TrEMBL record:
<feature type="domain" description="Ketoreductase">
    <location>
        <begin position="6"/>
        <end position="189"/>
    </location>
</feature>
<dbReference type="Pfam" id="PF13561">
    <property type="entry name" value="adh_short_C2"/>
</dbReference>
<dbReference type="InterPro" id="IPR036291">
    <property type="entry name" value="NAD(P)-bd_dom_sf"/>
</dbReference>
<keyword id="KW-0560">Oxidoreductase</keyword>
<comment type="similarity">
    <text>Belongs to the short-chain dehydrogenases/reductases (SDR) family.</text>
</comment>
<protein>
    <submittedName>
        <fullName>3-oxoacyl-ACP reductase FabG</fullName>
    </submittedName>
</protein>
<dbReference type="InterPro" id="IPR057326">
    <property type="entry name" value="KR_dom"/>
</dbReference>
<dbReference type="InterPro" id="IPR002347">
    <property type="entry name" value="SDR_fam"/>
</dbReference>
């Protein structure tokens, strides 16, 4: 699934799933822009990838319209095009429904949902102009979650934002289909990132995750990157408006599975 000479923006790519996607894209031949608010981690991530191919870091708070405009402008200045956008930036704010502060709800929605909308709209405008000028259509990949379907009671804004991402994916896919621009989403289950690393030292917590995962293992960020590489490639040329759930079988499960000792 070659992405040779394609230009890809990946938000929230300084670490975790975003970095894994950036690494896979660079290995597949893409020129990658890592967008993040953590400048030190973002610069380090870009340096790491330069040994594999072409990567650069651009500071961007996806909730800020001016930052997004600058991200698009700087990418076009650097590479002259944008073929792929991966809306991966996301945050969480844990609190029970009755205790959640409005400010925390707004903060999560501003990054996870508003940010995906702002980036999608800004990049899609460039993609539409390119198509109208005779160029090839690009694609947009949103990072959803199984929590767009199932819920966690103390992760109210996160679950709401991921539900919104599913609908944003469908709406923008329908709007942009006339230009050949595809929009899809990935819905990861439990993935071994920094946020989940603590379960390795907590047997009970790990067993709770495994008991609701028929494949009896936690996923790797590289496996989500593989789905992103497929969606960005010509192999997915007739796929749009879809969410691919990579969750080890969790969503179809209506009970728990036995976890071996």
């Amino acid at each position: 699934m070659s992405l040779e000479n394609k230009v890809a923006i990946i938000t929230g790519a300084a670490r975790g799933i975003g970095f894994a996607v950036a690494k896979r894209f660079v290995m597949d031949g893409a020129k990658v822009v890592i967008a993040d608010v953590d400048d030190s981690a973002g610069e380090a991530a870009a340096e790491d990838l330069k040994g594999l191919g072409e990567a650069t870091y651009i500071h961007c708070n996806v909730a800020e319209r001016l930052d997004v405009r600058n991200l698009v402008a700087e990418t076009l200045n650097a590479y002259g095009d944008i073929d792929v956008l991966v809306n991966n930036a996301g945050i969480v704010a844990g609190a029970d429904f009755l205790d959640l502060e409005v400010e925390d709800f707004d903060r999560v929605l501003s990054i996870n949902l508003r940010g995906s909308f702002l980036c999608s709209q800004a990049v899609a405008r460039h993609m539409v102009e390119k198509v109208q000028d005779g160029g090839e259509p690009g694609c947009i990949i949103n990072m959803s979650s199984i929590n767009a379907v199932v819920a966690i009671p103390n992760q109210v804004p996160y679950c709401v934002s991921k539900g919104g991402i599913s609908q944003l994916t469908k709406v923008s896919a329908l709007s942009l289909a006339q230009y050949g621009i595809r929009v899809n989403a990935i819905g990861p289950g439990s993935i071994m990132t920094d946020m989940l690393a603590s379960v390795n030292s907590d047997k009970a917590a790990k067993n709770r995750i495994l008991s609701r995962t028929p494949m009896l293992r936690i996923g790797e960020a590289s496996e989500i990157a593989g789905v992103a590489a497929f969606l960005a490639s010509p192999d997915a040329s007739y796929v749009t408006g879809q969410t691919i759930f990579a969750d080890g079988g969790r969503l179809p499960l209506n009970y728990t599975v036995a976890v071996p000792e």
